[in-house]
Design goal:
Blueprint lengths: L11 E11 L6 E12 L2 E12 L5 E11 L4 E6 L4 E6 L5 E6 L2 E8 L6 E8 L4 E9 L3
Antiparallel strand pairs: 1-2, 1-10, 2-3, 3-4, 4-5, 5-6, 7-8, 8-9, 9-10
Amino acid sequence: MNLPQDLSDFEGVWRIHREIDFAERSLPGRFVGEARLVPHDGGLHYSETGELTLGTAPPMRAERQYLWRPDGVGGIALFFDDGRPFHAFALGPAPEADHDCPPDTYRVAYGFADWPAWTATWRVSGPRKDYTMVSLYTRPA
């Protein structure tokens, strides 16, 4: 099985196709765009841009940024763009991680079995949020 070996394997441009399933709404969400991971200060700067559609509403531009750093033990630590910790994961076929944001809970499962295509599946639950979000990352042709 071919798996990412270190942070540098993520460098470059990725296409993103994301599906969002809200538990209490019958209107799904979809994001289509790209992520660029470029070297920055000993890690990678993650910049995502694209078009978000929620149900039948008109599409809107959406973007987010993170900092990816080696975690010192062979994994990857993610930070919000202002430097606050987000979560960390070990490299392997299906690592998982949590992000504590009371009162809601964020859990992510990464899937690298089809590397270089990979997925990030977030399950968010709590009194304020309840949704599943699946993102598929692929290299442009």
